[in-house]
Amino acid sequence: MRMRSAILSVFLIGLVDGLAFTNGPSRTRFQKTALSMATSGALNCRPIGVGSAAPKTVVTNDDLENIVETNDEWISSRTGISQRRLLTHFKGEEGEEKENLVTISQEAAANALEMSGLDALDIDMVICCTSSPDDMFGDATSIAAGIGCKNAVAFDITAACSGFLFGSVTAGQFLHNKSIKNAIVVGADALSRWVDWDDRNSCILFGDGAGAVVYTASDEPGMLGYSAHSNGLGHDDLMLGYKGEKRMIATPGEGTELSSGSYDNISMNGRGYKGEKRMIATPGEGTELSSGSYDNISMNGREVYKFATREVPVVLKEALEAANMTVDDIDWLLLHQANIRIIDIVAERLGIPKEKIITNLKNYGNTSAGSIPLALDEAVRSGQVKKGDIVACAGFGAGLSWGSTILKWG
User: Fold this and answer.
1) Where in the sequence numbering do the catalytic residues fall?
2) What pLDDT, in 10s, does the model give residues 90-142?
């Protein structure tokens, strides 16, 4: 029990400090500082319910031809995306139903809860994995309250496109240790809020969506092995940074310039936090601070592609090794839905045939932390994934972060 608690602490510290955590030897060639800890791999918890939700508004590749210089063939051949869902009713104007990240997350979680057969009061923990919350202080408590999880502790995890898997492992540790009995892990993002709609390289990629999985403590493992890494040295390859603008407040002397808070768009050439100047009355000319906001997403596409196609096959093998399994034991491969070329090359390098790949990228685009549970929900409800199937999952994205979990469904 103490060992598992210690492992969880090290795992969380590793995420915060930008180190690497794995339950097998670290093989990441570009990590200057790495933390490696061996575990048995398997966690005694099972996924017993899954749900998803997506915004009502659909934007196709043909629609984007009216916004930027592009076309369906150019987008689909390079990304595998044909359309995406976008949140457009954040506040809910008169006659409109409010639709934001919390509402679609609540819907996804409620659907997962219904499939699990549990009551909302049976849930002990709700984790929201997101990089684009409605509330910068976190959405998990609102999600939990909205579906009636009155007995649950709720908190957010930010690990970009790796978030859902990191959140699942975190919940799995609590469940394995018998600290809790049932947990809901939500993966949700609304990266369309940060898209530069004049940049054809970025606006074609992202969509909004949410997915959720209910995990329950069990006597036998359902999370068979996992491995997770992060490398802050690659931070600048994919980021959405702070960009402040000067703001003056009244202080002795010439004053202090601050910035007022807000967030900006996603961009392939992104910057960071974006603030606007604001002066407040103080003695003298004031102090210059910065007003809060964030700028566009910045992504070095070539480096991210190289990183993903290099590290994802390795982290999947690490998780399989921890589970005492091989690639031949996998029924399904489910990767973060970022780009069809990345998905195909990872499968090829692992020797996994295309008929074992789960993907819905075509219809949703890159929904970041939402992509894995959203695709899993469709696969389970369609009968593609059946009880007892082995699903090898892997996420990768900003941080840089990447991880894999081997799940036995049901």
Assistant:
1) 161, 336, 366
2) 766 666 788 999 999 999 999 999 999 999 999 999 999 999 999 999 999 99
List the one residue out of 195, 272, 269 whose CA is nearest residue 241.
272
CB 264 within 8 A of CB 294: yes
For residue 259, how far is the Cα from the chain centroid? 29
Tokens of 174: 């609590």
- Please state, in angstroms and rounded to a whole number, the distance separating the CA atoms of residues 224 and 2: 20
Report H helices in 351-386. 361-364, 371-381
Question: What tokens does 373 get?
Answer: 């549970």
147: nearest Cα among 117, 106, 116, 186: 106
CA distance 209 to 170: 22
Q: β-strand 45-53 against 208-217: which pairing, if any? A: antiparallel
Looking at residue 167, its amino acid is G
Global pTM reads 0.83
194: closest CA among 101, 132, 128, 130?
A: 132
Place of tokens 């592009």: 70
